[in-house]
Amino acid sequence: MNSEFISISCIPAPTFIEGDYVVFEPGDRHPDRNNLPYFILIVVTRGRLFISEDGRNMTVSPGESVILLPKHHHYSWKATAETTEYYWLHFAVISEWDAGPQPMPMRSSVEVPILHYHTPQPTLYLLRQRRIENPKALHALFDRLFATSTSQMQNNFWPTQQLFIDVLQTIQIVGEEETAPFRLARQVRRYLDDHFNETITSRKLSQVFHLHSSYIVRSFKSAMNMTPNEYLIAYRMEHAYKALANTDLPVQRVGSMVGYPNPSYFATQFRKRFGMAPSEVRLLHVMHEPRQEV
């Protein structure tokens, strides 16, 4: 059984394209396809399917699923020996994804402000091939998905996509399969969020998490695509911008609130981030406030 992992960024989310239920008689073969731009999810309900991807042979038995990668060569490496039935669907992914021996955290393909980003885990983890824990429930989801996608009901796009998301949630891997570096990065990020207005150094993080600072930095960067210090600066700056735009607090007070008691250093960091001085933010928002009629 293929034990590879597929890791997919959910921002933006995968999209259902099409699907169906097929029956192969003995001697039939899966279509020979090359460079199809979609992922293919197959769930066998009866018989055995002999499918190959770029010469890598896989046998899929009843109660098992397999996922074929986009833009690869898929074909039957052997004809079916008995009546074989299975569900299949195509889904598109335009975000970042990876296939390999370990699950890999994927960053969002869309820039999301750190201050307002509350999704703790934007990566979908799937196994290339696996046994389905509750096949009857999954089969029922497939039936509803295909019935909705082919109905004449208007505006059935969103109900169809919701059912497809339910399918992914049923077959996804959660929890224990997260890598140790990603779990550490998530813990470090929570610590930074809770203590962003304090003095935080690599030595401090090493003391808090009882790990070498270089390992913490590598783990955080692999998951977040930035170092803990870069994340901390960005988080502080977004808090500062929000305070300057929505309150009358003095600039120096705002700087102290986000961990910069030195006004000059705060102004320098702010200008690097936003291309303007802190005082300009307040002026900008005053100019754009709607005038009240008298």
Compose a concise summary of this entry.
With 294 residues, this protein is α+β, with helices and mostly antiparallel strands. 38% of the residues lie in helices and 22% in strands. It has two domains: 5-171, Regulatory protein AraC (Jelly Rolls, Sandwich); 188-287, Homeodomain-like (Arc Repressor Mutant, subunit A, Orthogonal Bundle).
Molecular structure report:
By secondary structure, the chain is of the alpha+beta class. It folds into two domains: 5-171, Sandwich (Jelly Rolls), CATH 2.60.120; 188-287, Arc Repressor Mutant, subunit A (Orthogonal Bundle). The protein is built from nine helices and twelve strands. The chain has helices at residues 135-149, 157-171, 180-194, 202-209, 213-224, 228-246, 251-257, 263-274, 278-287; strands at 5-9, 15-24, 33-34, 39-46, 49-53, 56-60, 64-68, 73-76, 84-92, 97-100, 123-127, 129-131. The strands form three sheets. It has a five-stranded antiparallel β-sheet, covered by helices on one side. It has a four-stranded antiparallel β-sheet with strand order 3-8-5-6, with no helix packed on it. It is elongated and about 80 Å long. The relative contact order is 0.12. The mean pLDDT is 88.
